[in-house]
Each structure stands twice: as structure tokens, then as C-alpha cells.
């Protein structure tokens, strides 16, 4: 560590001054106390670190700079962290108008949505990485061209006027409209692809918030409001950022006015082109919007009611004819299959099954007769009671097949007690009700 020596003369003593005569003691020294002193503070820690790792001052400064950069990167490695393009690192700082300021600061995915806090954090992170002093400390030979790009990007994005001018021409924030084929792949694809396009364009609207595209369930009023807004879109977008630089010298005023007129004409032309571009974009979206077609169809429904009714009637007749033809063909097919089955079973088997079914039905009907039509003993059954009970029996027999008929006849065969017979019938009716074959209230006596 270098030291400086400064030689200063002592003050001149007064004339005639004598030490024994003129010196007067005004006090005495206190008794000395012994104290233990320990070195502390960041400088001592730095000294201890260098001694421990056997580093020189320059080596320790370089390593500490690298660790500080890494620490900042770890702290900000969230929403403002993105890899750096090697081509961007070699940009010429003089061409600052052609650079992407958001990409320079690592805010490509945020752009016009980036907050002031994010811009400041991104700038701090880039400065710590690319500051000439930091680069020199890490042994890098990179020049300070990209650092100048960083500073220019920060200057533009922290100035509200300059940032608005840059956002006005930031094409990288635009969302390209989808092709007709891509938007028509599915009903949801149209809204999924076109929605972000208008959300991106809405950043130029003087009126905020701008209405959104919506979805297939949007009302007619909402859809009309959306297209009316975009067909009458009022944009704040300007193109000053792309102006040709106006000379600052006062000697050539004609040249200065010429450049200003040229810039104004260029802005008007770009504004006109942008308005035409946006209108074409809205018309393309309108052409593929199925909701508009649906609304137009609904509007024509009243005027074309007779035609639609006639078409519906013709369609109904055709459908009924087609259905009748199919049913007829199905019946013919079922009949042929039934005939084949009957022939295969044989006449004897059919007669046996028929006789068995008749026998079982007689058993079923006889069971309710033996049970006095499910009336208490000694009570005579009237004609109405007999008809109701036999009607229920016929209804049950109509809802079961021959196999189930045989099983039921087997349960009722040999029973004589009215309560037991009634219990078997009630159980059978409940089973049919559970299967959905008998509806509530269909039976008049059985199952109640």
C-alpha cells in the first residue's frame, strides 16, 4: 500500500520564550489502562480472505466481482432472466435506433407490459455483468459498445415520451393474425388464435380497456360492440421514432425544414398504411367469425319462415319415409330370422312351449282364484274385483317371458293359503317395478 510523506515546519516560538520559566502544567496524565484490541470490519475480512486463499489484491477483486454478478443474477433469475444473443452483444452502439431496447435489457417477453421496477432491475443486472470495470476485473477483453447499448436502452425505456415512441414502432410485440385454415380447424381455434391479436393491437387504443373478442357464447350486443369499436378504432400510434435526424446547426435552415417536412409526410403515410392494415385485419376476422353467420341466419329466420317450414316439412317427410323403409326392412329381416328359428326348433318344440305357457298362465290365473282374488276369507269377490285382479295378472304375464312365467308358476303351484299367494304376486310385481317394467300406479291390486 503506497504512503505519502508531507513535511511541515513547526510554528515559530515567541521571542524571549524560555521553557523552564514560561511552561506551565495545567493538569496531570491519568493512570494508564490496558485494553485488548481486535481488528474488525470489511477491510480486515478482505485482508483475512486474501491471506487465507493466498490472493493478490487484483485477484481478490476479480473473484469478488464475479461472485457479486452471480449473486445479482441469482436474485433476479425470475421474470427478467433470458439468455443473451451473441449477435446482440456485438451491436454497434451508434445504431441505437435499430436495436431492440427490450431485448437488450432482457425484457423480450414483457415489452410494453414491463413495469418501471422490472426495467430498473433488468438494467442493474446488465450493468453488473457488462460494465467496463467489471469486464476488466474478470479479465474480459470485450469493448464497451454493448454497455453503451444498455445505457441507451435504459434511457429510452425510463423516459415516458421516448418509450411511448419506441412502443409505437415495436413490431416484435405484435401477434401475427392466423391463417384462414388454422382459425377454422375447430370452433375454439378461432377465438384462441384471434384473441391475442386484438389484445396486442389494443395497446394502441386511446380508449381503455378495449373490448375483447369473446367466445362462441358471447351475446349479439357484445359482438356488435366489439366490431364497431375496431372499425372505428382511434389509435394514438405515431412514428416519430423512425424520423430522420434533423440537423442541429443553424446555418442550413432550409435543409432542416426539408427534413422536418419529409418526416411529417413519412408519418402520415405510415399512419395511413397502419389504419388500412388494421381495417383489413378486422375484416379478415369478421369474415371467419361464425357468430356473425349465426346472427345473420337468425335475422333471416323471420323473413324466410315459410321457406324454412317447407324445407323442414320436406326433410321430415324424407326422414319418416327413410325411417319407415328401415323399419320395414328390419321387420322383414326379423320375420325371416324368426321363421328360420321356428323351423329349426321344430313343430313339436313350438307346441310344447305353447302348451307349457298356456298351462302356466292357467296356474297363475287359478292361483288368484284359489286365493279368493286376494280378499279375506269369507268375503265374496265382485265382478269389478275379479276384473281388476285378472287385469293385473294379464299385465304381469305380458311383461315376463316364458321362462319367467314358468318360474312364477312353480312358486304358485301347490299354494293354497291366500296370504302366501298374495306374497308371491307382490314380490313379483316389486321385482318388475325395480326393473322398470311396471310403472307406479299401473297395478290396481297386485303389489299394493
Describe the protein.
This protein is an all-alpha fold. It is 62% helix and 0% strand. It is built from 19 helices and no strands. Helix 16 packs across helix 18.
Set down the secondary structure blueprint.
Blueprint: H1 19-22, H2 42-53, H3 57-75, H4 86-89, H5 101-104, H6 116-130, H7 132-137, H8 145-157, H9 160-168, H10 180-183, H11 187-201, H12 220-231, H13 253-288, H14 290-303, H15 305-345, H16 347-370, H17 383-399, H18 402-412, H19 418-434
Helix pairs in contact: 6-8, 16-17, 16-18
Entry summary:
The protein is mostly helical. The chain contains 19 helices and no strands.
Count of individual beta strands: 0
Roughly how many Å is the radius of gyration? 50 Å
Low-pLDDT runs: none
- Report the span from N to C terminus: 113 Å
Oligomer: single chain
- SSE string, helices as H and strands as E: HHHHHHHHHHHHHHHHHHH
Relative helix content? 55-70%
Mean pLDDT: 82
Instruction: Tell me the fraction of residues in β-strands, as a range.
Output: under 5%
What structural class do helix, strand and pairing data support? mainly alpha
Counted by DSSP, the helix tally is: 19
Characterize the largest beta sheet: strand count, sense, and whether it forms a barrel. none
Cα shape: elongated
Provide keyphrases for this structure:
mainly alpha, 19 helices, single chain
